[in-house]
Design goal:
13 strands; alpha/beta; five-stranded mixed β-sheet; globular; 18 helices; Structural Genomics Hypothetical 15.5 Kd Protein In mrcA-pckA Intergenic Region, Chain A
Length: 398
């Protein structure tokens, strides 16, 4: 593939390529580039928001470049302050190790595992002694760090900023030095950190990396960026049928973003689909099913997508509850049981507040009867059908 076609492929869907001319120069040398993408193991699961930038990583991989997936096991102890309005809680080494265990398997859904190098930034950051660290701190100024919008905002609002948080961008930048990265990828919320890596490489007499930022994918709520901590995420490790159901629950407006960011549909094709919907020639439900099917096929498998769609249609269109998820409760389960506790036992919700929200929305029913009282207690019996939210149906056994 000639350079212009490579540039077109690599820039497609990106928000910025900084600077584009440097990427052209690097590609013109016809050498294998070192592409860096970092992720802190602050939770055990990656999600479809990560898939946006991982898919761009796969583009580089398909063109024959060296892809390095960097697990920030050291920086996770600090926590990336990007976009945060308060200091993140510190994770223990045990929590970090537990969260790391599933990362490679999940990344392997998108990247070719046989062509992916996995590194850990504790390899070099743990080796920095106090003298090395102070020398590193001397490479940047306080003014540079406090230019970051989230830091500046917290200072204006007189919210505390931990000194360790100010170190995070510097440590992420040093990762690029340690790896001698040619290109670093990240979401738009990482722009400051990525550019600092470019600056620090120059101070270490390295050729500065090109920065490629990808758009942030909104979560199921359509407002906040996808995040496990916000409860609006679709995890790459989730069962395919659950992912399909969640995808079907998003708004029609958000559907277009998912087509673009997760499936790479061009603006021209999106406009054509939108025109057909506006003219009444294409139903949004049919289009959303196609979106959900194609996303599950891409990040799970074609077989998973077929089975998930069939289960969804049986449950929610044909009302065939034989396809509902069967859950057997322990024989000593109390009866009557608080409705929220039942939802937790079914793993329909994780917190009491989630259960209360669903009930107040009229989204919880038992055997077709809507539960309206958050404090309600229900009799537990065999073969009861519990619906929680738009796309979760359980058949309960005891």
């Amino acid at each position: 593939m000639d350079i212009e076609k490579q540039i077109e492929k690599l820039a497609h869907g990106a928000v910025q390529v900084l600077p584009l001319e440097d990427l052209k120069k690097k590609l013109s040398k016809k050498k294998k580039l070192r592409i860096k993408l970092g992720a802190d193991p602050t939770s055990p699961d990656l999600h479809l928001g990560h898939a946006v930038v991982l898919s761009k990583m796969r583009d580089f991989q398909d063109l024959g470049h060296e892809v390095i997936f960097l697990i920030g096991d050291y920086t996770a102890r600090i926590g990336d302050p990007s976009g945060k309005s308060k200091t993140r809680p510190t994770l223990s080494k045990e929590d970090i190790k537990k969260n790391m265990q599933t990362y490679f398997e999940q990344v392997g859904k998108i990247l070719d595992p046989n062509k992916t190098t996995v590194r850990y930034n504790s390899e070099w950051l743990d080796k920095l002694d106090s003298s090395d660290f102070l020398k590193l701190c001397g490479k940047i100024t306080l003014a540079q760090i406090t230019e970051r919008e989230d830091f500046a905002k917290r200072m204006r609002e007189q919210k505390p900023i931990g000194l360790h948080e100010l170190m995070y961008p510097l440590l992420q930048a040093y990762d690029s030095v340690a790896l001698e990265a040619d290109v670093e990828l990240g979401g738009t919320d990482q722009t400051f950190n990525l550019l600092l890596g470019r600056d620090l490489q120059q101070q270490f007499d390295q050729e500065p990396q090109v920065v490629i930022t990808m758009p942030l994918l909104e979560g199921l709520d359509g407002v906040q960026k996808m995040s496990k901590s916000l409860g609006n995420a679709i995890g790459l490790a989730e069962p395919a049928h659950e992912a399909f159901g969640k995808l079907m629950s998003i708004s029609d407006e958000l559907m277009w973003r998912y087509f673009a960011l997760l499936l790479g549909v061009t603006q021209e094709d999106l406009s054509a689909m939108q025109e057909r919907v506006a003219a009444g020639n294409l139903h949004p439900m049919a289009l959303k099913k196609k979106m959900a099917h194609d996303i599950v096929a891409k990040f799970w498998s074609l077989q998973d997508a077929k089975q998930a769609q069939e289960q969804f249609e049986n449950l929610f269109q044909r009302r065939d509850h034989t396809a509902a998820q069967e859950v057997t409760l322990p024989k000593d389960t109390a009866s009557p049981l608080w409705i929220v506790q039942l939802l937790k036992d079914l793993n329909a919700v994780k917190t009491t507040s989630d259960g209360k929200r669903l009930i107040e929305q009229g989204a919880v029913s038992i055997d077709g009867e809507v539960i309206k009282d958050f404090k309600a207690e229900v009799e537990i019996k065999g073969n009861m059908i519990v619906k929680a939210g738009k796309h979760k149906i359980f058949k309960v056994s005891i």
